[in-house]
Amino acid sequence: MKRFRFSSLMLVVGLLFIYLPMLILVIYSFNASKLVTVWGGWSIKWYVGLLDNSQLMGSVVRSLEIACYTAVAAVALGTLAAFVLTRITHFKGRTLFGGLVTAPLVMPEVITGLSLLLLFVAMAQMIGWPQERGIVTIWIAHTTFCAAYVAVVVSARLRELDLSIEEAAMDLGARPWKVFFLITIPMIAPSLAAGGMMSFALSLDDLVLASFVSGPGSTTLPMEVFSAVRLGVKPEINAVASLILLAVSIVTFMVWFFSRRAEETASGRSSRPSRKVLPTPGNSPTYAGPRRRERRKSNGLTAFLRSTLNATPCHRKRPLAVRSRITQITATCVAVAVSGPAAASRCCAYWRSLLPR
């Protein structure tokens, strides 16, 4: 009982430590007084005054624009880097490549910002680009920093994938790029979304890199807030922060609502009485075979695949039992592919277990 009370106390203290400052900030955003530390009553004039503060609103729009560009570019580059690190296990310079991909995670932002600044200056002197530092240079700096986080998240997901589905698709003649876009990408979509949201948040919150590579007219929201805090916190800053908290809360609630709705829908479908299906040839309890009509289609497909595979020299060199089982594997995977990736994965795992070691 004491352990439960202590853990509950620590939970309450931790939640208060995180969310109490945010609550105070939201309350003081409705303060009628110009002094942040002095309460002057309730008022919404600072929210109305945001429409007249073109400099602050311009920095908000600019930060959101850069964050969107960074999220898209970081997800693309990070996914490609993660795919190379997880699927291409042996190539010259793999260790160096992995170190370069993850280096921004451990490198101080001051060093990264200074090196990018020197790079942009040298490029402007040599090739004349960029002529001036602005949104493009900030976008490049944030993409360099955020791509490392996306690579780590996506590589962790790629290592957990069942390769039998991709192997079955390539055995049926699908090209690697088609397998990547039609099979791999849908299976790693949650990690891509997580990496994109992380990149968006990191770009929106960054101050150090933007301070090094920004130029006139490209001030972001963190830079604007930092310069305002040095002279004293303005009430408009509290109003902007409250609006950002409201937007983040709405997005978080929508993600939670739709994910829970999807889980309830999936659980409702699984609770329905399943149709009677014929067992597999081995009467395996872990895999339910197709119905009679699907089995007839599978038998015709097996005959076609057997004649096709026997035409290849490398397949004819294998023992007869192995050739027959490989044909059955491919045919059964095609027959259950219409049931979704989970059924195809169970099917491939079942037949792969029957192959001789």
Order of helices and strands: HHHHHHHHHHHHHHHH
DSSP summary: helix tally: 16
What integer is the average pLDDT?
81
> Which secondary-structure class do the elements indicate?
mainly alpha
- Residue stretches low in confidence (pLDDT < 50, at least 5 long) are 276-298
Total count of strands: 0
Which descriptor suits the 3D outline?
globular
Q: Helix amount, in percent?
A: over 70%
Can you summarize the main beta sheet?
Answer: none
What does this structure look like?
- The longest helix has 37 residues, at 235-271.
- The protein has helices at residues 2-28, 45-49, 54-87, 94-106, 109-126, 135-160, 163-171, 176-187, 189-205, 208-213, 221-231, 235-271, 292-309, 313-316, 320-336, 341-354.
- The chain starts with a helix and ends with a helix.
- It is globular.
- Helix 1 (2-28) packs across helix 12 (235-271) and helix 7 runs antiparallel to helix 8 (176-187).
- With 357 residues, the chain is mostly helical.
